[in-house]
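Morning run. Coffee first, then this:
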Amino acid sequence: MIWWTIALAQAELPPPGLDRALARDRWHEVNAILEGGCAYQRLLAAVACAEGVTDAAIAHADAFQDALFHDAGLEYLAGLAHRYAGEDPKAIARYRAAIALDPAYDAAWYDLGELYLKGGRYAQADEAFTRVQELVSGGANAWLGPWRRAEVAALQHDAEGFEAHIKEALQQGFSFRSIAGLPNWRRFYADPALQDTLSKLLTVYAEPDVIESLRSEP
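And here it is:
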């Protein structure tokens, strides 16, 4: 692989079409590094990676970009690696770079929204998830944007906004089963500002075991 990277560094900028193919191939390589060395833990809502994996992924993405050109997909994966490494400011910068290259990159908007949400930057999180809602307005994942906007509202104790966004998510295919037992939803359920609204929604749209999972201790 080293000789190929050196050869690319000495090559001219590839013609239209070939550049996308080269970037796509490198994207799959970087993604394979992350998928092979990292694992998602659902209840902790976190990803754990083996030692050196995130550094290797970032280096592999940047070797291509330094040699040839910047690519939205590679910037996104570099951001993902920084996020997995707990380097949120660097991840945000990379997601922003991906969006600058491709304003319709919904995955970058989604992950950017998650980091803003984590940092308590609720207005920016809602803006990012609104873009997701606009960009992914149909198909199997159309519920993602309104669902995350509901979480932004919940963290601000906004029962009216929470209800409106969750109802939109439900219309787009959201299921309360996907949040069963999650710690943040347990907190939403215990929030006096949200409890009546959420209880009514759960009674209509959720199975009894989902409701019980939000009442029980972690």
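The CA atoms of residues 9 and 66 lie 8 Å apart. Good start to the day.
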